[in-house]
Amino acid sequence: MMRDYLPLADTILQENVTYLRPLQVLPARVKLDDVALNVMTDFKKVTAATIDANVTMETANAVMIKRGVRLLLVVEREVVTGIITAADILCEKPLKLIQERGITHSEIMVSDIMTPRDRLEVINIKDVMEVKVGHVVATLKKAGRQHAVVVEVDEAGKQILRGLFSATQIARQLGVQIRTTEVARTFAEIEAILNH
User: Domain segments of the chain: what residues?
Assistant: First the structure.
């Protein structure tokens, strides 16, 4: 027999009400020997910044500025087709396209300069859970990239993007200066910076 349920009380929404958003709070300071998860943006806790491949590069840049990020996942119908970074927008790739195609800067699309899925190297979250911040720095250095994408793999072997590492974020948490165009070459360089 179904029990009688009373309706909930309601009221009018007040003025100037905001809404909850996923929020991940990373430690302000870390050391190279701290667990790597302390420097990973976790998509279970933070909504990923995304963009469509069929919008202009200028739109992508504006979204990055608004969100305060330097990487956007390029998605189509909630499927990741690649990534675009601030470096992609600021490097010589757009200038080359302008010369080759005879187009203007405002005509360059995200799809023209993004790193497509089939060229995107990823790290498994299981490996991340077992390593330190220093391992992540070494990985970024070896790849010569500012970002590393992390995936989770389900029982069926299907990947889902779980998070990412950013050299800029790691540098901020380490309290060191790492230029956004390059990652420190050795641990000795990082340690020298940390000791000053």
Answer: 36-194
